[in-house]
Amino acid sequence: MNRSTIVRSAVVTVATALAAAALVVPAEAQHRASADTLPLVTPRAETPVLHDDDEGGNADADDPAIWRNAAAPGRSLVVATAKEGGLRVYDLDARLVQSIAAPPAAGEDDAPGRFNNVDLVHGLRLSSGKADLAVTSDRGHDRLRFYRIDRDQAGGPLTDVTDPAAPPVFSQDQAEINDQRTAYGLATWTDPATGKSYALVSRRERTSIALLELLPAADGKVTYRKVRTLDLPASFRLPDGTSWSPCGEPGELPQVEGMVVDPANGMLYAGQEDIGVWRMRADLTGTPKLIDKVREYGVPGVYDEETEECTPGTDPGFGGTKVSADVEGLTLLTESDGDGYILASSQGDDTFAAYDRELEDANEYEGGFRVTAANDTLDGSEECDGAAVLNAPLGSKYPNGLLVVQDGHDAPGDGERDATNFKFVDLGKVMDALDN
Fold it and tell me: Would the pTM count as exceeding 0.85?
């Protein structure tokens, strides 16, 4: 990589080249298990239910991150977003440790704070010293928010250290922020060659991804500056010569949400929800490659304004076979020998797909699994939005590591209120499922 380019603000527009590159995908792997025959794993615990209504504080579980307490792994934490409900922090028993409200609206008619995705940065150098941070995308204000992590701090382990002057990520003014084409998906990355830390942020209802360098500000605060952006394609040329774009509400483009960076090679994996999983350089240079497509890729559709839904046409058979739209939470499962997996939530069929992280193996599909009910009161995961995995001992409860997945339909519910939460899964069960 030319290191001088990473500090130069630029916009990389690659839609034309990417549309052609999207036609080239890895050869089919030998694993062809359908969603119905994938191995099952069960959770060990679940967090308290969240309700996306006025009574529940408009809290909607979305995306988790796992912070390991190196001094006492059994006292590690899970930090998770609850959209307008802000942030939730849980211990390894899935009990609530701290609740942080999203920031209020800037004005009476403006959008309120809404936390979409969260990731971690370790050892960021601040004016007050090095710190581990939870970083979240505030979709409501089009900004990033930063929270210093101190497990034993009075009042809760997270403290807001966001620079009040931190700028909007994509918007030019408050009116544009209120349109909510704002900061959405999020992944963090520390470049081992320079030691600099970054956040990669996608834009709601657009195909853009921005690279932001994280910077110390006065009084132990954190800010950022935009380095460059990249636009993924919104339309694709199919093998029959026709052009296709996924059906959606007029004016909306196929957005990215789930993202993760493999620090071993500096590759970003991004889930374009209605398209598939992309691989690209985390510095957003070069040409991205579509490593897998959703089953619905190439299917025409007609949007019905009355129902606000798309009516699909005939499937021409150009899609993939492993994941169903939407492609959501992406997370990296590392192994000590350098092997590991990119895990992707296949929201359309309630499964998880695993891709080999090694580039020489072309990120081939390695298998999948489903998180299903452990008993009558501890259900599995449906329509999973976000996921996080950590392959490291976490005390006696999770000596094999931990997978945390969002559950978009917690059960049993009362039938009247939308209910979501997070499931905690022993990573040993997941590894056994992928090894079989």
Answer: yes
